[in-house]
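Notes to self after the Tuesday call (sharing in case useful).
The group wants a holo model before anyone commits to mutagenesis around the pocket. I volunteered. Ligand is pyridoxal-5'-phosphate. Logging inputs and output together so the record is complete.
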Amino acid sequence: MQKRKNKYKFDTLQIHAGSRPDPFTGARQVPIYQNTAYVFKSILHAEALFNLQELGHIYSRLSNPTVSVLQERIATLEGGIGAICCSSGHAAQILSLFPLMHPGDNIIASSRLYGGTIQQFSNTIKKFGWKANFIDIDDFKAINKAADSNTKAIFCESISNPGGHVTNLPKVAKIAKKLSIPLIVDNTAATPYLIKPFEFGADLVIHSTTKYMSGNGTSIGGALVDSGTFNWSKNKKFPSLSEPEAGYHGLRFHDTFGPYSYIIYGIAVSMRDLGMTMAPQNAFHTLLGLETLSLRMKQHVNNAIKVSKWLEKHPLIEKVSYAGLSSSRYAKIVKKIFPRGAGALFTIALKDGYEACKQLVNNVELFSHVANLGDTRSLIIHPASTIHRQLTKKQLIKADLALNVVRLSIGIEDPADLINDLKQALDKRIQN
Ligand SMILES: *Cc1c(COP(=O)(O)O)cnc(C)c1O
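Result:
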């Protein structure tokens, strides 16, 4: 959990960070420690571990050696000082907020988020006494206006799912700094290969590792990464970290652990009591996926550019919402903060409405009709009737999701095959 200036570059770190040959067996790949508990050396050793005077594995709800390798690797790739992996992206969102929030507190959240996140933030977190104030994250005045004395964070996606909108992270980070609250960025759709939000002022990053990070559509998982730069004691806004914590015999986390306080709180209190643990098998699959992250992201981006350019010219397509196109209103900010491309997730609006969407989704052969994204395989879905179904009409409009919109997650197949597949599916509509 140390911030180091790494001598290695991204392609090397995605394979090596956090792992070394197993000291006992020499095994070169990270072993799956399918294990729940760890033998204490003595009573004193056990005491030191429970007092957080010594760091080590106690019980796999809190930490596990296989999961630890993944945590270190993701922290390194994002340029953070530490990470916690957990059972899902949704778990990572709750985990990110838990040390910051108390009943009556609120967050400012972008109205363009993954549908499941809008749902979690609109309804479920209310049961904890938390609230989300949704705003258009491109409207900087609205962000400031939405803040009050109980606002504890700003939450947005670097590239938003499903619209492929890009967030002006430097601007939003500046606002968060002025408000003395952390900026939490969901970096799922971009991955640290395309952007490291910490470089643009974000304080915390979360991931659904279910998507590009694991890449193969095998394992649900999440990660929370801390930049280590936020001062939790600057004001009295974050008592769980700056004041004596009743849940841990009155320990003052920030006083005791400094920049590591947020991550240690996340393990010692949040994971202990919420139990949203990542399984070692899932950590292993995610580590395998991460080894090829940069190679996959390059091909994802190249394919997305080719497919979106072709779609833009198609007579049945009203609009392609892809920030990687020069026609996008995000073209300028993409150039500035996404030099490696704007990802491979975007939406298309069809001129002939919902019927045409149904026909397209039903007629594709290579694209899979699933509720996932960031797979090596190309995926297609009609958000308004599926992943965004629980959203109100107003929420759908704010998320830029009309009934005639289809989401594409472009995979790493041959781009000509992907274009041909979309062509034959769209041609069926022309012929009818
Ligand atoms: C999928 C997704 C999530 C939720 O992650 P799960 O692993 O499915 O719980 C959160 N944010 C974004 C951007 C996602 O795409």
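Two things stood out.
Residues 88-90, 114, 116-117, 157, 161, 186, 188-189, 208, 210-211, 220, 222, 373 surround pyridoxal-5'-phosphate (CB under 6 Å).
The chain has two domains: 10-289, 293-431.
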